[in-house]
Each structure stands twice: as C-alpha cells, then as structure tokens.
Amino acid sequence: MIQRIVTELGPWAWWVLGIVLLILEVLMPGVFLVWIGIAAIVTGALSLLLWESAFWTWHVQWLLFAVLSLVAVVIGRRIVSARGPASDQPHLNQRGQSLVGRTATLEQPISEGRGRIRLDDTMWSVQGPDLPVGARVRVTASNGRDLIVEAV
To answer: Which of 135, 133, 129 is closest to 149 using CA atoms?
Structure first.
C-alpha cells in the first residue's frame, strides 16, 4: 500500500509526509515533528529536481531524509534553546529565589548555622552566622530548601 502511494505520488510523497508531520505538530505540540517535517519537505524539493536521475533511488532518498532530520533537529534545538525563557515572572515556582534581597526578623535564633524566620505567612528555615532571636537578616540566596541569610 505504501509503495503504491509513493509510486503514484512520486516526489510529492515527501511533501505529503512533511505536511502530515507539520499538522501533527500543530495537534500535538512539542517542537519536534516540525523539524522532521521540514526535512521531509526539503527531501521533496530535491526529489522534484532529481526524480529522473538514475542515482535518485528510494535508498538515497531515505538516507538523505534521515540525515536532514538529524541536522534539522540539532539546529532546531539550538534555535529554541538560544531564545531562552522569556517571562515577566522569572522566579515563578521558585519561591525561595523570589525572596532574595528581602529582610526579616529571626523568629528562632540561628544556632550552629541554622534558624528560622517568618516571611509573609510562611516560616522558613535559614542558614547563616549565629544570631539571637529578633536580629534583622537579609536573604542572600536560596538552596531549594533553606534560605541563606546574613546579618543586616
């Protein structure tokens, strides 16, 4: 069946495959099928030019498609990762990072490098130099679970 479709469509089979892959990318976005679809369309464009050539067998076409797919995926990943995340809230879901620079009063003393502060409605474990209850501290970093503080 597939051989019959390819035979009847000729070089247009690659165009059909590319368009199907692009449609699948729209239906199931993941920014992956688009690059393979582009590789199929490029293979189709070359097929239109080289269809009558003796060396342009299905083996060569599939090999070219495989190589173009790999190249397109690698280039596409670089393009997508170079843009980086553009967000008006870069610390969304990173609450500890959003607290860096804030000041607070110690609720529990920092003893042996560990204590607790209250910021807004949450008690946070902190690490820093030993300080008594009521000392003012500034959050300098977050290591995921604890806030790193220094005396103000």
So the answer is: 129
Question: What is d(CA 99, CA 139) in angstroms, rounded to the nearest whole number?
Answer: 7
In tens, the pLDDT along 32-54 reads: 889 999 999 999 999 888 888 88
Cα angle 91-92-96, degrees, rounded to a multiple of 5: 55
Element (H or E) spanning 112, and its range?
none
Strand, coil or helix: 48: helix
Domain boundaries, the chain: 2-83, 95-151
SS3 of residue 114 by DSSP: strand
| CATH number listed for the domain at residues 95-151 | 2.40.50.140
pLDDT tens, 65-84?
999 999 999 998 888 777 66
Tokens of 18: 């590319």
- Euclidean distance between CA atoms 122 and 117, whole angstroms: 8
CA dist 124 → 56, 91, 107, 142 (Å): 67, 17, 10, 11
3-state secondary structure of 143: coil
